[in-house]
Design brief:
InterPro entries: RNaseH-like_sf, Tnp_DDE_dom. This is Transposase DDE domain-containing protein. With about 120 residues, the chain is mostly helical. It has one domain (about 5-115). Helices cover about 55% and strands about 10% of the residues. A two-stranded antiparallel sheet has the order 1-2. A hairpin with a 2-residue loop joins strand 1 and strand 2 (about 95-100). The relative contact order is 0.10.
């Protein structure tokens, strides 16, 4: 590739991000074990895995959990925020999420929840 050292370095960094994203899709979204020997079932699995992977990344960016220039690792995001150890409690008609007292990601989760709830709906 021709160009200045900065352009070549940026090109290779962008390529590395793409390769890391594909690796994360394979390992973090369930593509390391395609469940069936049937072509159409595997196609459906692939489509759902890609949608889940993209939704995970978008929620992480929109909820400001991960800065836009950083990589979202699906497995880490899932372990910290989706596989939440907690209990949904109904207190006087108001639903409350009870989490462990020393849950290390409570602050990030609450900030993301407030940020996501404040987003305007997309017009159809």
């Amino acid at each position: 590739m021709e160009g200045s050292a900065v352009e070549v370095d940026q090109f290779h960094r962008n390529r590395a991000r793409i390769e890391l994203s594909i690796k994360d899709l394979k390992e973090g979204a369930g593509l390391e074990h395609i469940p069936s020997g049937k072509f159409h079932a595997n196609g459906a699995w692939l489509a759902h895995a890609v949608i889940a992977h993209n939704l995970t990344r978008q929620v992480s960016y929109l909820g400001e959990i991960t800065p836009a220039e950083s990589m979202v690792i699906a497995r880490t995001f899932r372990n910290h925020f989706i596989s939440l150890v907690g209990r949904l409690v109904n207190r006087s008609g108001k639903m409350i999420l009870r989490t462990p007292a020393r849950w290390p990601w409570a602050g990030a989760f609450m900030r993301a929840l407030v940020t996501l709830r404040a987003l305007e709906p997309v017009p159809i």
